[in-house]
């Protein structure tokens, strides 16, 4: 009986340990704006990702990995897995990675037609209130 209870406790602990606060990886005091072309999307849990090719100051193309909210949250905001096709030009407002990598947590994405969507994670410490 004790072994079954321990197994149940351990099984329940794994998913909780897998999630993180936005502030653990991204710097809310380092907002950034990227303009780039979508090269890949990942519509996966617990976070969706948009990969964008951005032209650096030296003219070289740099690929950024942009973390967004969960697919179900994005769907409630009007997006789906086909909303951001490869080749789409986006403006991304968000927060850079603390480790300086080409990774960011998006707050908003803006399409060429001017439509804007909040794509940040909500309820886990995302700094979306800071506008």
Task: Report on the architecture of this protein.
With 131 residues, the protein is α+β, with helices and mostly antiparallel strands. It has a single domain (26-121), classed as OB fold (Dihydrolipoamide Acetyltransferase, E2P), CATH 2.40.50.140. 21% of the residues lie in helices and 39% in strands. It has helices at 2-18, 22-25, 71-76, and strands at residues 26-42, 49-55, 61-67, 89-97, 103-110, 116-118. A five-stranded mixed barrel has the order 1-2-3-5-4. The longest helix has 17 residues, at 2-18. The termini are far apart. Mean pLDDT is 83; it is low at 5-17 and 127-131.
How many distinct helices? 3
Which class best fits the helix and strand makeup?
Answer: alpha+beta
Please identify the top-level CATH class: Mainly Beta
The largest pleated sheet is described as: 5 strands, mixed, barrel
Mean pLDDT metric: 83
Q: How many strand segments?
A: 6
CATH topology: OB fold (Dihydrolipoamide Acetyltransferase, E2P)
Gyration radius, in Å: 17 Å
- How big a fraction of the residues is strand? 35-45%
């Amino acid at each position: 009986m004790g072994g079954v209870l321990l197994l149940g406790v351990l099984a329940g602990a794994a998913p909780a340990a897998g999630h993180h606060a936005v502030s653990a990886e991204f710097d809310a005091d380092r907002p950034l704006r990227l303009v780039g072309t979508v090269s890949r999307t990942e519509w996966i849990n617990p976070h969706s990702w948009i990969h964008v090719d951005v032209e650096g100051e030296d003219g070289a193309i740099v690929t950024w990995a942009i973390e967004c909210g969960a697919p179900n949250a994005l769907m409630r905001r009007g997006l789906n897995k086909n909303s951001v096709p490869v080749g789409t030009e986006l403006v991304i407002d968000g927060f850079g990675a603390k480790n300086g990598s080409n990774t960011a947590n998006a707050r908003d994405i803006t399409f060429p037609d001017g439509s804007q969507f909040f794509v940040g994670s909500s309820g886990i410490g995302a700094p979306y209130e800071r506008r």
